[in-house]
Amino acid sequence: MEVTNNSPLQQRQLGSTDLQLSVLGLGTVKLGRDKQVKYPSGFKIPDDKTVKELFSVCQELGINFIDTAPAYGNSEERLGKLLPNKNNWKIMTKVGEAFENGQSSFDFSAQATRKSVERSLKRLGRDYVDMVLVHSDGDDMNIINNEGALPELEKMKQQGLIRSFGMSTKTTEGGLWVVENCDVVMATCNLTDDHDAAVLQRAKELNKGVVIKKGLQSGHADKSAGGSGIEAAFKHVFSQPGVTSMIVGTINLQHLRDNVRIVNSIISTD
After folding, report:
1. How far is Cα 211 from Cα 246, in angstroms, rounded to an integer?
2. Tell me: the pLDDT tens digits for 22-80?
3. Which domain holds residue 241?
4. Burial classification of residue 226, based on how many CB atoms lie within 10 Å of its CB (0-12 exposed, 13-18 middle, 19 or more buried)
5. Active site residue 72
6. What CATH number is associated with residue 206?
7. pTM score, whole prediction
8. Number of domains comprising the chain
9. Which of 87, 145, 166, 167 supports an S-S bond with 184, CB 3.0-4.6 Å?
């Protein structure tokens, strides 16, 4: 089938799981948190009506994948309240980091991990979560070697509470370990940072899921912010091996439509 700029987004299988994700996923930091974020300009957290419109446009464009986290303020609660046909979406949330009273805190213990997932299920109004990632504080290997989060997520997967798990990593070493031992890694890839290139290559070799974060450098890829441009950023990400999906965190409907149009044009010429 010929892909046009107006076609719904392509979906790709998340590694060896049975999850099919749109090649762009919606990041929801801006739905619940506007403090201590690294965007080039400020923004206002959108009201419920605007969020519902955002979800409607996502459905129109073929976006079926949403990224959230307890660290994103009240993002999970808003998804549970406002997301239409909530079981039709693939949702990824996280454990390990919470953001309350303007401060982040971290707890990677097994007990905190289970409590976090159970709280996310309640907030989201779901019986299970499609993907749960450990939200790394930067010391990936300490979390992997000395904390109980990942073994607990494995147990919760066996119990049917989550369908897949992994980590949003900060280091190449951590990313490679996650690819070797988990279902999915959330890795960094953009025109100024390719430290996870080996992670992407290994994920492709092992057929593991890869979700890209910071592909647009938190908005800094835009030429208006001094970057090389949105199209160049997307071309770079989708030229890498093994990429399942990339997260975009816009709440601007025109930007979202433009992103889909650009990605469709890139993928159609692969």
Report:
1. 5
2. 999 999 999 997 776 665 566 789 999 999 999 999 999 999 999 999 999 999 999 99
3. 11-268
4. exposed
5. yes
6. 3.20.20.100
7. 0.92
8. 1
9. 166
